[in-house]
Amino acid sequence: MFTGLVEGMGKVAGLIEQGAAMRLTIDVGQFAADCQIGDSVAINGCCLTVVAIDQQKLGFDAVPETLRCTNLGRLAVGSQANIERSLRLGDKLGGHLVTGHIDAVGQLAERRDEADWSFFWFRCPRRLTRQMAAKGSITIDGISLTLVDVEDERFSVALIPHTLAVTTMGGLSAGDEVNLETDLLAKYVERQVQGFAGLQNEAT
């Protein structure tokens, strides 16, 4: 589990194709000192397992399904990525509960900058917006954010200067793809509602 509070940005140091899979090497700086083989780390919100450590560089294996369903397959050497180590029991939960399992890839449709702040609209599949509500939570590239407005196939967020400065959000442009994970509780609520509706249909 994660919180969606990004600890820093890493830089892609290497990409090695392994058939349809890929070995992803990321320079995470000082965070590598607290990591061990087998640890879970969120890279742009996608939970990956540390399989190699070389000083400040961590190695991860991304399977074909991960590359297909996230934006990790679009990374290039030198690209920046948001980094968060997994939540430990007793840690402060400052964001919201995040699993690191990406639901879909969205796309930045519109960016409006106002002084040091920014207002973003993202496009996404309709099935995801059914799990969203204004003032609820959404994880974008591993960042826990508050939803402003939600429409059928898009949603908006407002970004403070700090978020723009310490995450990859500041470098996004219209058309860029991002990893999306909807709120865990919203998933369960939708599932329960679907089950209740199914029982009603069976009763009639």
Q: Which topology of the largest domain does CATH recognise?
A: Elongation Factor Tu (Ef-tu), domain 3
| Quaternary state of the chains | single chain
Structural class of the secondary structure composition?
alpha+beta
Gap from first CA to last CA: 41 Å
Percent helix among the residues?
Answer: 10-25%
CATH class of the largest domain: Mainly Beta
Shape: globular
| Cα Rg | 18 Å
| Contiguous uncertain segments of 5+ residues | none
User: What's the number of domains?
Assistant: 2
CATH architecture of the largest domain: Beta Barrel
Helices and strands, in N-to-C order? EEEEEHEEEHEEEHEH
**Strand arrangement in the largest pleated sheet:** 1-2-5-4-3-6
Q: Mean of residue pLDDT?
A: 93
Percent of residues in β-strands: 35-45%
> Main sheet, how many strands, which sense, barrel?
6 strands, antiparallel, barrel
Number of helices: 4
Task: Please tag this protein with its features.
single chain; 204 residues; alpha+beta; Elongation Factor Tu (Ef-tu), domain 3; 2 domains; six-stranded antiparallel beta barrel; six-stranded antiparallel barrel
